[in-house]
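Pair request: fold both.
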Amino acid sequence: MWNNRIIKHEKDDIVWYSVHEVFYHENGGINGYTEDPISIVGETVSDVKTQLEMIMKDIKKHEVIDASTVKFEDWHDEEK
């Protein structure tokens, strides 16, 4: 499973936020997220609007992830 989430980043006392695809273990724990923020690209204006609506739905539903404190689940650990 995956969704879009806002991730808070910090480096050298500079803080920024970006939207990433976040991937989950079957127990709901976070396995990882895309290294780069997502890009919004579509073949039509409607495609772009649909993607933006999905992103907004996801980020309204889920809390911001702090990249410095997120705990990742093991992809292969089925017992967690």
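--- second member of the pair ---
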Amino acid sequence: GRHGMKFASRNRWIIVAIAHYITILFFTQLNFYIAPFGISVLITGMLLSFSSLTLNHLQGSFSLIPVAFLIDTKTPFPFGSSLLTLIGLHYIAVLVRYQLRRESEAASLATALAANLAIYIVYTFLAAANLGTEGINAFQIAMNLLISSLVIALINLHYQRALIEILGVFGINIAQEPRQSR
């Protein structure tokens, strides 16, 4: 009972990482089905937004490491590039968060969209550096970024609330925690 809850509280990043994993697997499957249309949805920025704005900086970074490794296995870029990208953006988001002082749905969505845009830019540069520029289609990138942004705009709040609910099941109340320690 008590001990299990304590373990869950100290290791909340595991719960968040599992939720992120399931979400990535869902979108990987979705992307497989919509690939013939030249569409690919990237939601990594939304996952990062939750980890960076809801957990403390260490728990947040721990929750993103397995996600980065999963993404690394799916991209042709040098191993570790997703890790560097996500952890770098995570700490930028954490710094921004401490400036804001209060969490809001708007801040969460803005962070998700900004992080997603940053990830798109990084991946585009990585693709150009590793695969050459001839495979890069600016229109397709813009379309996918737009569609991804719309998807995030539609589901970010639901994702956030669902994860907070799931954490609640484990006796973790994100809202009641002191800001500094989280």
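Observation on the second member. The helical segments are 2-10, 12-34, 44-54, 57-74, 81-100, 105-131, 138-169.
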